[in-house]
Specification:
The chain is built from ten helices and 14 strands. Helix 1 runs parallel beside helix 10 and helix 4 packs antiparallel against helix 5. It is globular. The protein is α/β, with parallel strands linked by helices. Strand 2, helix 2 and strand 3 form a beta-alpha-beta unit.
Length: 278
């Protein structure tokens, strides 16, 4: 019987340098050849699903941390942030000098210093890991290049917002926005301390998975999910088999039914073998 697998991207499908391990590609492709469905289930918006990710081959997309669902090129759901709430966060972040970018399916719209900040993060990683310079450049430079500067930031096409680490404590930012947004720590460790993400309140990966499997008329007992970050907890708890990566945060491991190896230790491939998906 066909299974349906939900795959996080950052820290799960791709490693900390933004690169997909070859074993993960092979595992996903073999699982699909075996008749199983594999869906992206990520905090990223569609604009951030680079060709090297989509070329692995998937049956559909859950994006924007559950705010967007696409299957067979049909959009089942697309939740967007209210323009008034965007204005609130743009004003707050600019006033407190917090760099951020707004995620839409059509592009990533960066605050004034955001692109420069992310380039500095990439350069620091390359200095600290000279042996991995080529891999870091390959994995993270496309994301930097996607950022659009100088555009109007108070917009009505935004799915989600990410903010980089700053001197403003994460808890202060969470307190400011928690009545209007779901606020979580960033799923990208390189963004630094006090970084985070804001998405539509009441929406998360599990709500999207529920809607998707109902649409496909599939049983929950045949669902698997793989993740590593805080925004994966609801997903791992909802599916029948929630599997945390070996590099996952401790809270994620506690929420999971099982723990596999890390992304760079063939975690996806090894778990697919364990559950006889391949």
């Amino acid at each position: 019987m066909s299974k349906i697998i939900f795959m996080d991207i950052d820290g799960t499908l791709v490693n900390d340098k933004g690169v997909i391990p070859e074993s993960a590609k092979q595992g996903i492709q073999r699982a699909r050849r075996n008749g199983h469905l594999v869906f992206i289930c990520t905090g990223r918006s569609k604009a951030e699903l680079f060709p090297e990710i989509l070329e692995v081959g998937f049956d559909g997309i859950i994006g924007a941390a559950g705010g967007y669902i696409e299957v067979e090129e049909k959009v089942l759901l697309h939740e967007q942030v209210k323009k008034a709430d965007i204005k609130h966060l743009v004003d707050f972040f600019n006033q407190h000098e917090v760099d951020f970018y707004l995620e839409s399916n059509g592009g990533l719209f960066a605050s004034e210093n955001c692109k420069k900040h992310i380039r500095a993060i990439i350069e620091k990683m390359m200095v600290e890991n000279p042996e991995a310079k080529e891999e870091i450049e390959k994995g993270l430079q496309p994301f930097h290049d996607l950022l659009i500067e100088g555009q109007e930031l108070v917009r009505d096409d935004i799915n989600k917002i990410s903010f980089l680490g700053s001197d403003v404590p994460y808890e202060v930012i969470k307190q400011e926005f928690q009545s209007k947004f779901l606020v979580i720590p960033s799923t990208v460790p390189a963004f630094g301390e006090n970084s985070g993400e804001l998405s539509v309140i009441g929406i998360h990966k599990a709500t999207a998975i529920k809607k998707l499997i109902e649409h496909l008329d599939l049983e929950k007992q045949n669902t698997y999910a793989y993740g590593d970050g805080i925004n994966d907890i609801e997903m791992l708890q909802f599916v029948q088999y929630g599997i945390a990566m070996g590099n996952a945060k401790e809270a994620v491991k506690k929420a999971a039914d099982d723990i596999t190896d890390s992304h760079d230790e063939d975690g996806i491939y090894n778990s697919f073998k364990k559950y006889e998906l391949i």
